[in-house]
Amino acid sequence: MRFASMGSGSEGNGLVIASHDGLRERRVLIDCGFGPRRATERLEALGVPPESLSAILVTHEHSDHIGGVFKLALRHDLPVFITHGTLHAARVPDEARPLVRPLCAGDRFEVEGLQVHAVPVPHDAREPVQFIIDDGRCRLGVLTDLGHASPLVERAFAGLDGLVLECNHDPGLLAENPRYPPHLKRRIGGPFGHLANAAAAELLARLDPGRLKRLVAAHLSAHNNRPELARSALAGVLNCRDDEVEVADQAGGLA
Q1: pLDDT, tens digit, for every residue of 153-190?
Q2: CB 119 within 8 A of CB 163
Q3: Are the CB atoms for 88 and 110 separated by under 8 Å?
Q4: Which of these, 21, 73, 94, 116, is most buried using a 10 Å CB contact count?
Q5: Which candidate, 44, 102, 94, 36, places its Cα nearest to that of 69?
Q6: Pairing status of strand 114-120 against strand 129-134
Q7: How many CA atoms lie within 13 A of 42 on its CB side?
C-alpha cells in the first residue's frame, strides 16, 4: 500500500491511497478541499490521473475537506462515500446525488477490494469520521480533525502499519497568536477542535506503534505550529530521529 498527500492544512486537504492486488492498482481519495483544476494539478503532480481513482471518501463537511469533492466526482464519475450527517450538512448538487453512497459513522465497507472502516471522531461537525484502510497486507490509519482521542479511536487505530496523524498546533503559539480571536482559540484547542502536538504524541504512545513503518504528521496550522515541533513530539514517542517523522504540508503535500 502507498499513499500521498495533495496538501494538508486549513486551505485544502486530500490524501490518495493506492494498493496493487496483483492485477491492477486500486486508488481512492480521502477528501478533496481543492477546486477541480487545482485538484487535477496536484493529483497529476503525484503521478495520479484523476480518472484512475475508484472513489472519494469524505471525512466531514468543512470546506477544506469537502470543497472540491462533488465537482471532481462529477467530472470523473466517482462514487462518494459520505456519512448521513455530513451529507445533510453539505451542499450537494442535484446532478451529483446519484454518485452518493451514504454510510453511518462506525460502518465497515468495501471499495474495490479495499476494506474501509469509518471511525467516528470528536470534532465540531455533523457526523465526522476518519478512516482505516486495509488491503489485506497493510492497515493505514488517517486520523486528523479531532479534538481529543476517545476510547473508540484508541481501540480502532491501534496496531497500524501506517498512520497519518494530526499535529495541528502548539498551545503556546496558539495562545500568543494575535490574529486569532479568543473564541477561535477556544474552538481549536477544545475537545471538539484539533489535536495539539503533545496530545498527538500522547495518543501515538497509546496506539501500540511498534508495527508502524511510516508515520506522517498532518494538518499542521500555518500560524500556530512549526514542522520541527510536530516532528520532535512524535519522534520522542518512537525514540527515533526527528527527520524520520514525515510532514504533509499545505503547499506541496507529501509524495
Answers
A1: 999 999 999 999 999 999 999 999 999 999 999 999 99
A2: no
A3: no
A4: 73
A5: 36
A6: antiparallel
A7: 28
Element (H, E) at 172: helix 171-176
**Contact of 195 with 206, CB cutoff 8 Å:** no
Tens digits of residue pLDDT in 77-117: 999 999 999 999 999 999 999 999 999 999 999 999 999 99
Helix axes 69-76, 36-45, angle to 10 degrees: 70
Q: Tens digit of pLDDT for each residue in 197-219?
A: 999 999 999 998 999 999 999 99
Distances (CA, A) of 225 to 81, 129, 166, 209: 31, 24, 12, 24
Q: Which three cell numbers stand for residue 9?
A: 492544512
Cell of 29: 481519495
